[in-house]
Amino acid sequence: MNDDARPAPEPQGIPPHSGAADEAKRQDPSRRSVLWTTAGVAGAGIGLGALGGGTASAAGAGAPEAVAAAEAVAAAPARQGRTMAGVPFERRSTVRVGIIGLGNRGDSMIDLFLAVPGVQVKAVCDTVRDKAEKAAKKVTAAGQPAPAIYAKDEHDYENLCKRGDIDFVYVVTPWELHFPMAKAAMLNGKHVGVECPIAMRLEELWQLVDLSERTRRHCMQLENCCYGKNEMRVLRMAHAGLFGELQHGAGAYNHDLRELMFDPDYYEGPWRRLWHTRLRGDLYPNHGFGPVANYMDVNRGDRAVSISSVGTTALGLAAYREEHMEPGDPSWKESYIGADRTISLVQTAKGRVIRLEHDVSSPHPYSRINSLGGTRGVFEDYPERIYLEPTNTDHQWDDFKKYAEWDHWLWKEHANPPGGHGGMDYMMVFRLMQCMRLGLVPDFDVYDAATWTAPVPLSHLSIKAKGAPLPIPDFTRGEWKKARPGMDSEKPAE
Fold it and tell me: Considering the entire predicted model, what is its pTM?
């Protein structure tokens, strides 16, 4: 669930400050630039681009080139710091928050930060000053001191990140801005949480991993769907062995966004729709990938090793435009290449398979699929249903409500949480802020963020190579082999 803040030009490098100049020198151009030189550039500033021609058949001939490019970046470089796996936050009585991006998503999420005890919003930032001022009024209405406002220009977020009275930066902006903003936060000593996806290029994912390890700051993909009630119940059941040995799972973001993407009043500008003119792959894998990865302990005993993707033609957005947009609308200048439906298969080190789907351009009821299967049975969502042996033996789905005893302690403690998306947003904010206040290890970390986002560039490249399987980097650099806690947490003592 991303934000709708005002778009900015393609992100530029962060101006040298607080170590940023040294950071640029640390990058290894021979490896980091491989996706720019080998795979080419698609659209405006997008890595992992087109392989030669624009047709699928032409791209297929480039499969070996695609694999070589992906393998070059999949190879883990030498660690420059220390692992962030299992590293707790510093304990603090109050978490001081700065929020960057106050569109639809940011405006709604600030209410949840203000609803959690022990949290203070110290600064807000948006290029649209009216939005920042509206957010500041929410803070004072909640009884907190007026936050600082950063709305001078498109780089004022850097000044927010420089503040000495902020512990956590929340990034809620258009996708192309996520990487430079997360980078600026960590370079200035802040933990950072980013809406999906955390970055758009593989080399950016590696940079975030390296930077998190060197600065000792957590960089997290704030994946709210991991905190859904059904997702957390299935998580606990899976870890208790009710599904037997896990074999397969599926997740998706099948959400008809055509009307919203063409609505000038919903998104601030066409930034989200424009990504469909740049990439062919799964633009938003995190909502489906994150929960299933948690079920399977990916990065905590298993890991995602490869991905193979295919996609349909791109017809949906153009058809919607034909029917609904006036002839002079700026959208008529756009050529959509993004597959209406993308299907990816992810293989894990233990031989499990995860199916990912993405479709925001076709008529379809909302579905994240959210399926998990093992040697003793299967769960499928939308609608929710379950079949587990030895209870079920009649080839008929059972009622998932019978398994409410397996609800996560968060849902037992907060039975009617405030906020949107069925309460999962509040659960995510509450738990993250709790971990920071109590000095706990976060439920997920930079390695999860990078893994859950890697399908964005890799699915694009695999589709261009006619489904060639491509390696997913081991962002943990071998730490995945060690079992460690994740979201299936115990309730902490306050």
Answer: 0.89
Express the helix, strand and coil content of the chain in percent, nearest 5 each.
40, 15, 45
3-state class of 46 per DSSP?
Answer: strand
Burial class (CB in 10 A: 0-12, 13-18, 19+), 396: exposed
Residue 227 makes CB contacts below 8 A (sequence gap 6+) with: 410, 424, 425, 427, 428, 431, 487
How, if at all, do strands 95-100 and 119-125 pair? parallel
Place of tokens 């490098």: 13
Reply yes or no on whether the pLDDT at 59 is more than 60: no
> What is the distance in angstroms between the CA of the first residue and the CA of the last residue of the chain?
30
Q: DSSP assignment of 217-281, as one string?
A: --EEE--GGGG-HHHHHHHHHHHTTTT-SEEEEEEEEE---HHHHT-TTTSSSSHHHHGGGT--S
Q: In what order do the strands lie in the sheet with 353-359?
A: 385-388, 377-380, 371-374, 246-254, 353-359, 342-348, 304-311, 470-471
Q: What is the pLDDT of residues 254-282, one digit of tens each?
A: 999 999 999 988 988 899 999 999 999 99
